[in-house]
Design goal:
Two copies of one chain form a homodimer. In chain A, 32% of the residues lie in helices and 28% in strands. The radius of gyration of chain A is 22 Å and the shape is elongated. By secondary structure, the first copy, chain A, is α+β, with helices and mostly antiparallel strands. In chain A, the strands form three sheets. The first copy, chain A, has a seven-stranded mixed beta sheet, with helices on both faces. In chain A, strands 13-12-11-10-14 form a five-stranded antiparallel beta sheet, with no helix packed on it. In chain A, strands 1-2 form a two-stranded antiparallel ribbon. Chain A has three domains: 3-62, Winged helix-like DNA-binding domain superfamily/Winged helix DNA-binding domain (Arc Repressor Mutant, subunit A, Orthogonal Bundle); 69-272, 2-Layer Sandwich (BirA Bifunctional Protein, domain 2); 279-320, SH3 type barrels (Roll), CATH 2.30.30.100.
């Protein structure tokens, strides 16, 4: 959306139920009434409902259910994350787009889409991303070594869990990269990086959340293990408000990791986790490790107490017992 | 270069000093004499000198001094590296091009350029890449964790040193990523990766070698610490033959790392290194470590015996004493 259209929406929002005339809008934006009319028409095509009464003016009736950057940025009080938001109606994968943009983008740039055709999970797995969800990738440029990459998955998990809890829903974290409600998955996180051997150029934190997703729209094999926020709440959520809360939470955690160190985030991950304290089976390419999950390290590895002793697991699929 | 042009060059090379007629070439390639003539003209524009005598035929007199994929691939007996070679006369950075292509490219794809406008060294440093050098990036897709990335720098160093030694020039390896002749830099290696937290999607091994580079063309601050193969040999080298030898050496080391394990490469790195056994100052962002370099680990870290004991250094600039 162009800046002028954003400005019109802002002016209309500010005016609330008081009509603003085309002349007044033109004055605020420094454009002609003809241009105001053109933008109004374009806004209507984008799904904004604007009531126009000859002689009095225009009133914004409703905004479309779209993740438009102008809507997300309106009232977003972050200083790093969301300074630049790139919107796509449909995209292969927001992580792939973010990766291509990464080196030339500002830290905190967000790529967001209404749907993904080839959303990815860990190790190239497919991630279903129908309309109604929030599919986004955040570009960060921390000055750290590649070995720290798993920290961003943990950090994002904490932020997502907090944003969901802000809606009054009990979300928990499942190692390594899922957010659950009860025992069902509502969100997956895929952190990727572009790095030299000893320094990350940038990380991409991919976050996919079933917000207003109809579970029947997911493939059959996923339905029994997945849920969505709308299914839990029994109503559709305001996705814009949710994304704003999530970006806010992400920024809070990111700043916390920089100022207070990663330990406090790790501590919170543990307390939000439904994996720790649980009997688990962890499937790795080599074998299945069975035992009780007793902790997580700052490198993101899971500690499992097995019959043979304590095991530290770098990567695997975790099945809660 | 199109396949047909490559086929013409191959046919001419095979014929040596025996002229081939346009009709004969057309027959071999399955195209008309008019098309043969068109391709001949295009080849002339690319710098190939072809002597054509009416009535007898065509003889290849000389190929241009260009790193054309068709020339590199002609006689290249590798099975992984160089199966696909992308050529640029001028490019910002071959690593950047390779990074963008990485996920959709075959393992072993090479990006090569006559010059780079924004060649990069470690930590975003500039790398001067004038004409005459070999500036290339190799895409590998090993199934390993991100922590193994430094191994590819060491592996490439061994391959470059061997390729240079194949010319009868004593090259040595300087930690972490340079190849020296005497105490002057002839090559730098920049390994980058696209990775998930626990798995590399692909690595890019960037290799910049001053082959036929005039040292006077480098910026003044680099001249005293740099050399080129042509300076050492006192004559220009056949860059195509050198690139072929290098790709061959890279593939040998890569296969060795997969079949015999990384230890044998590490052992060779040590024996080719002029850092090990040397008094060094290692400059890190935090401090300068002074001591004797006594070893290197499989993670690419340098072991330095200091007055205070043994130090393991992950990253830094090494100054040979």
């Amino acid at each position: 959306m162009t800046d002028k259209k954003m400005d019109i929406i802002r002016a209309l929002k500010r005016a609330g139920n008081n009509p603003i005339s085309g002349e007044e809008l033109g004055g605020i934006l420094g454009i002609s009434r003809t241009m105001v009319w053109k933008y109004m028409k374009a806004l209507g095509e984008e799904g904004y409902v604007i009531r126009s009464s000859p002689g009095s003016g225009h009133v914004l009736v409703s905004a479309p259910d779209k993740l438009y950057p102008s809507e997300i940025m309106d009232g977003l009080d972050t200083s790093i994350i969301g300074g630049d938001i790139r919107y796509f109606d449909e995209v292969d994968s927001t992580n792939d787009v973010a990766k291509k943009m990464g080196s030339s983008s500002d830290e905190g740039t967000v790529v967001i889409a209404e749907m993904q055709d080839s959303g990815r999970g860990r190790k190239g797995g497919h991630w279903m991303s129908p309309r109604g969800g929030v599919w986004m990738s955040v570009i960060l440029k921390p000055n750290v070594v590649p070995a720290y990459a798993p920290r961003f998955t943990l950090m994002a998990g904490v932020a997502v869990a907090k944003a969901i809890r802000g809606l009054g829903v009990e979300a928990s974290l499942k190692w390594p990269n899922d957010v659950l409600i009860g025992d069902k998955k509502v969100c997956g996180i895929l952190t990727e990086m572009d790095a030299e051997c000893d320094q990350i150029n940038f990380v991409i934190i991919g976050i996919g959340i079933n917000v207003n997703v109809l579970i029947e729209e997911l493939s059959e094999d996923l339905r029994s293990s997945s849920t969505s926020l709308s299914e839990i709440k029994g109503e559709e959520l305001d996705r814009i408000a949710f994304v704003q809360a999530l970006l806010r939470a992400l920024e809070d955690e990111y700043i916390r990791s920089k100022t207070s160190g990663f330990d406090s985030i790790l501590e919170e991950w543990r307390s939000l986790s439904s994996t720790i304290g649980r009997d688990v089976d962890v499937v790795t390419p080599q074998r299945i490790i069975r035992g009780k999950a007793v902790g997580i390290t700052e490198n993101g590895t899971l500690l499992v107490e097995t019959a043979e002793g304590l095991e530290e697991i770098v990567a695997g699929s975790c099945i809660h017992g």
